[in-house]
Amino acid sequence: MYDFFFWFGIGLLGNIAFASFFEWTLHKYVMHRPVGSFRYAFQAHAVVHHQTFKADHSYHLVNHDDRKTIPMAWWNGPLLIIIGAVPSLAYSLSTGNWALLAGAVTAFTSYYVVYEYIHWCMHLPKQRRVEKPWFFRRLNGHHLLHHRYMHKNFNVVLPLADVCLGTFMARSKIHFAQATGPAVPCVQPRS
Fold it and tell me: What is the Cα–Cα distance from 189 to 176, expressed in whole angstroms?
């Protein structure tokens, strides 16, 4: 039983870190540019979402009808979880170690659910419990800067890949009219 929990933990923690790089890659190379003739993700995210939600007051929902542009389509979740777990599936098939795959699926499922929920809270704030801790404010500022600089801060949940791959931005280099609110930190340059 110890062996199961050990490999489950390795699968869980390793794939949470991997999910940061998976999210970064998907966001940068699929959601911010067309991939051949596949334009769905680019259109839904870079064109519609980024045109609706900018870094100014429109970072928060202005028009009630735009609520549908905050989350991904429901079917993206299972598809992304399956794709993200493929390396662990290959390992499990070759070794018979299914605990690692269970950890990977748990990691990707959790990462996706957290992504959708906190992204929703960022654009539609209601002073929920999740919006009060310091880490939400940091992630919200991180995401706000992505809406100002579309080629920075691709991660929403865990900015590990942004830090490692050179796209992390903690503050704007120039002053701009930014969104404000109880869970929105100031991301203006330090004076």
Answer: 10
Q: What is the DSSP letter of 155?
A: -
DSSP assignment string, 37-68: TB-HHHIIIIIIIHHHS-SSGGGS--SGGGGG
- Buried-state track 29-50, b at ≥16 Cβ within 10 A, e below 16: ebbbeeeeeeeebbeebbeebb
pLDDT, one tens digit per residue, over 123-168 is 999 989 999 999 999 999 999 999 999 999 999 999 999 999 999 9
Helix pair 76-95, 98-123: axis angle to 10 deg = 160
Q: What would you report as the CA-atom Rg of the chain, rounded to the nearest whole angstrom?
A: 18
Decide if 176 contacts 152 (C-beta within 8 A): no
Q: Is the pTM here over 0.90, yes or no?
A: yes
Token pair listed for 54 = 């900018």
